[in-house]
């Protein structure tokens, strides 16, 4: 005996429930729950699901003819160069025809600015369409004028209905189209408001299908949630070809463009920019930029080297250690993981003999950079020891991952890190001990002091007071 079960679906968040409610139990929206599907189950040979009155069984549909891989001709796509070195690095040499790229980031971080710069750069000799549902034509033109450069071949489209946008792109056939933003898109075929999960997913799927059919590359702008995911959440990342994350502190000038996904290139590249009144400017020498205002004679100041993509970047780690005025000491970290800082303080006490249990500890990464590379562990420990002993460590660079046993583990790309430090004139490097190597080696003009425990590292740089 077969029974039919009605499934109700929220048109805003796609949550499902077996009964109708006035308010969605997941997203809290009112009046968005409607009949979404009917499930038929029972003792028959199978079950079927009907969506909007259609059955999932299609006996009259003819099969498609698959192609043999040996008969498929492989062609290398000619990329569209942007003309901005940092962006071309991130895109893998340029924009692939027919690709769909999603640029995500927090509101106000500069997503629209960097996409507009790409459009302005390419529009000097190729047709570009900039579609925006968040700004008027006058506002976009004003920002384009502030960025600088001619926009002879740039067209503005103030439209949010995806069917109209696709029809316009199909008629104009531009070299590039920018959609700002996907959260503002709506569709006449989807009974949901703009910003709903179903609307975002359906509109993006239509745009992807158009891009693959016409080879017109698209750049989509998307906002992120408080969790750092593209608002949806993460419902678009599997649809597009590339996902770029635009990061930085809105109060600072440094901006990073990281590659989270790229079907046509490497995911190990990062573009580094500076936000100015004339838009985003690429930083060709990030190490010099990070150390520009550094005072090497200050206690608690240590230089480390991290990898941003495949590029080594020297960063300035600052520490401040003071006796606590309260019963529970304060631990604060800016640009560094708070939990990892607490772990390193515990390792420093248990394995290095330096107990900071009655001290307030502050760590700051200069320049607004957010570091996730564990190679800065040793630099943080030595900065804490330097601040506690009030001793300056001088002009040296430090890196190495610290384990719970107090051991210092080697990190990748040691040669590239050493070359970057030597290029900026640093004379001494403290690094983990590689296998089958001597304890002190010379590489160019750098003296390398290899250490394999935090005790050895502390002994090498901190002078014991008599």
From TrEMBL:
Hydrolase in keyword set: yes
Biased composition (Low complexity): 40-53
Database matches in Pfam families: AAA_25, Zn_ribbon_LapB
Residue positions of motif RadA KNRFG motif: 261-265
GO annotation, cellular component aspect: cytosol
GO molecular function: ATP binding; ATP-dependent DNA damage sensor activity; damaged DNA binding; hydrolase activity; zinc ion binding
Family label: Belongs to the RecA family. RadA subfamily.
Protein name as catalogued: DNA repair protein RadA
Gene (name only): radA
């Amino acid at each position: 005996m077969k029974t039919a079960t009605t499934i109700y679906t929220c048109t805003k968040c796609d949550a499902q429930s077996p009964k109708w409610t006035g308010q969605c139990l997941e997203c809290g929206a009112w009046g968005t729950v409607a009949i979404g599907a009917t499930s038929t189950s029972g003792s028959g040979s199978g079950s079927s699901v009907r969506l909007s009155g259609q059955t999932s069984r299609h006996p009259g549909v003819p099969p498609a003819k698959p192609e043999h891989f040996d008969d498929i001709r492989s062609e290398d796509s000619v990329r569209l160069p942007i003309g901005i070195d940092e962006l071309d690095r991130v895109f893998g040499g340029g924009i692939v025809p027919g690709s769909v790229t999603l640029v995500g980031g927090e509101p106000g971080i500069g997503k629209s600015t960097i996409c507009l710069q790409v459009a302005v750069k390419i529009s000097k000799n190729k047709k570009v369409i900039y579609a925006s549902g968040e700004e008027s034509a006058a506002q976009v033109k004003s920002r384009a004028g502030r960025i600088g450069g001619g926009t002879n071949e740039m067209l503005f489209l103030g439209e949010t209905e995806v069917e109209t946008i696709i029809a316009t792109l199909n008629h104009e056939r531009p070299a590039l189209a920018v959609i700002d933003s996907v959260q503002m898109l709506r569709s006449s075929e989807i009974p949901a408001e703009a910003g709903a999960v179903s609307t975002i997913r359906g509109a993006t799927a239509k745009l992807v299908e158009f891009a693959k059919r016409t080879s017109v590359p698209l750049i989509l702008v998307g906002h992120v949630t408080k969790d750092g995911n593209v608002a949806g959440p993460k419902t678009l990342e599997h649809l597009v070809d590339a996902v770029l994350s635009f990061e930085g502190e809105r109060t600072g000038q440094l901006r990073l463009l990281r590659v989270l996904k790229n079907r046509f290139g490497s995911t190990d590249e990062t573009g580094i920019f500076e936000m100015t009144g004339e838009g985003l400017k690429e930083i060709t020498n990030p190490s010099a930029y990070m150390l520009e205002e550094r005072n090497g004679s200050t206690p608690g100041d240590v230089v480390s080297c991290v990898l941003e993509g495949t590029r080594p970047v020297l960063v300035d780690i600052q520490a401040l250690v003071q006796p606590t005025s309260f019963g529970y000491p304060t631990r604060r970290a800016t640009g560094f993981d708070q939990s990892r800082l607490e772990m390193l303080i515990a390792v420093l006490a248990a394995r290095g003999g330096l107990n900071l249990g009655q001290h307030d500890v502050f760590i700051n990464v200069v320049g607004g950079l957010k570091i996730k590379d564990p190679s800065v562990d040793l630099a943080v420990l030595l900065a804490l020891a330097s601040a506690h002993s009030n001793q300056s460590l001088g002009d040296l660079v430090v890196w190495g991952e610290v384990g719970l046993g107090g051991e210092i583990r080697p990190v990748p790309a040691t040669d590239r890190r050493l070359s970057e430090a030597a290029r900026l004139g640093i004379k001494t490097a403290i690094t983990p001990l590689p296998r089958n190597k001597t304890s002190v080696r010379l590489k160019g003009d750098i003296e390398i002091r290899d250490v394999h425990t935090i005790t050895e590292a502390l002994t090498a740089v901190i002078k014991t007071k008599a």
